[in-house]
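Thread: quick sanity check before group meeting

JM: Hey all, I'm pulling together slides for Thursday and realized we never actually wrote out the predicted structure for the chain we discussed last week. Dropping the sequence here so it's in one place. If anyone has concerns about the input, flag it before I start.
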Amino acid sequence: MEVTGKTPLLGTEKPRSPAAPSEAMELAGVKSRSVAMRQSLAILNRLAQTDMTITLIGETGSGKDVLAHAVHRASPRAQQNFVVLDCGSVVPNLAESELLGHERGAFTGAVAQYIGAFERGNGGTLFIDEVGELPLDLQTRLLRVVESRRVRRVGGSHDRSVDVRLVAATNRELSLDVAAGRFRQDLYFRLAAAVVRVPPLRERHDDLELLVPQLIADLKRPEVKVSPDVLQWMATRTWPGNIRELKNALAFALAFVDDGVLDARHFSSLPKNETDETNWVKRLPLGGVSLSSLEHAAIAQTLAQCGGNKMQAARILGIAVSTLYEKLKRYDIG
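JM (edit): ok, ran it. Output follows.
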């Protein structure tokens, strides 16, 4: 990228040199420049070419589902079905049917034959999301299918062979669930053949430059450019909700963009993450600086961030508007 003395808006910079140390690693469209994520992508690039069962472990919102789909797209099964079974959202009394399918009349309400996730994924990939939420009795059925690659529908009388590549995901520590008796040990060993950690966003700040334009495009605002101060602000947060939280924050901020450029002031009305703010402030070199100087700078910068809107600035600073006016007069801030 050319050095011009001014950081360009995201989406306007020139392509990086292929030899650049920060060159992004990619897995079927998922890109990363961060060390932690590059390591995970390197492993998944290799595993994608096999039929080995993969279990993705990571915090909620870290993008496990996106990586699962990328593994499928990078695999020899890419032209076949990619089927998702979300164990966290399946109604308990229908979980077995969702997984294995059912025949007509198998139970009250079964007015038609239903093809389960394993059969729908035959020849392709079955992504079992939040596998740690699967009830113990259904874990037994899942283990049997994983071992035999044969499915018997609920109410059925014969087995059907299935050729499915499994990718599982969880935000739980399954080994602890095994120790507590909440997860079958034999199923755990089947799923733990290849465990890949998906790092949280707080370990992937180098990827913000890649993620933000992509998420903005997903939100149907591809024409919006991103001011550099947005990335600086984002790098001060720990993002406990990870990429999902980031996308929600962008959706909020984009509602206030009228001039085609997203900047930090558009995020000013978001609820504060007190932990992020405290940790960030603690890292600043503030020793020996007078409190009046800090207050003056905080007020002046917040007011500028809010475009001069004193009510908004007072809300962000956590003080009454009348108090803000007093301080503006005291510090002679126009």
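AS: nice. The first strand starts at residue 25 and ends at 27. Residues 298 and 317 are 8 Å apart (CA to CA).
JM: adding both to the slides.
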